[in-house]
Amino acid sequence: MAVLAVTGTGTEIGKTMVTAAVAAAALAQGLSVAVLKPAQTGVAEGEPGDAAEVARLAGGVTAVELARYPEPLAPATAARRAGLHPVRPAEIAEAAAKLSAVHDVVLIEGAGGLLVRFDDDGSTLADAVKLLGAAVLVVVPAGLGTLNTAALTTEALAARDLRCAGIIIGSWPVEPDLAARCNLTDLPQSAGVPLLGALPAGAGALSPEQFRGAAPGWLAPQLGGVWDAEEFTRTAGGDQPPPAGLHDPV
Questions:
Q1: Taking the model in full, what pTM does it have?
Q2: CA end-to-end span of the chain
Q3: Using CA atoms, how far apart are residues 47 and 35, in angstroms rounded to an integer?
Q4: What are phi and psi of 48, to 5 degrees?
Q5: How many helices (H) and strands (E) in the chain?
Q6: Hey, which residues are catalytic here?
């Protein structure tokens, strides 16, 4: 897990929280961690961005932001509208490689989904990952509709010969509905990769100390944690049978 890119199937689904949890788990193992945010959008100058939030929650990480654009848009659009230079895949790969030379783990948090454009040439996070030979962790929502977007993202990775480390639920609801519970079983089947964890809704509201202590319990061993997919699926009711009498003969 020397360099791991964290992407998602959309926006506002928990990429930053997942990045912080993976960072916290790695730090708890005594590893040095760097977090790279290639393009931060929708945050004004002087305000804390995603990399700073990861550092706040996880602790002693090296937080690096390559570019910042004020409007909450795709990086290519935000850069063009702001009259600023876009971030290119080669710049992302170079920055990650330099961080990897002096850190045990480098986490690259993308913007939006895998194929969101960084520049007007159509470059994406996938292009930077290709240059690095890194694996990709895909953050997904818990509920209805996630099977399709998860499968589309992992198929896009496979089509580019990129390795997907697995998928992780960015925000597991306090009271999951039927779709969310069933998705615990269906997600790895649809996406074709393992489910590597689930972060509770509201994880970012925890104190940094609480977050760091709890993070390993949200992540599978592949990500430095102790979370067990089979146990979580069983206790969360992902394999619940239909209500009694639903299919009784009339």
A1: 0.91
A2: 56
A3: 17
A4: -70, 135
A5: 9, 7
A6: 37
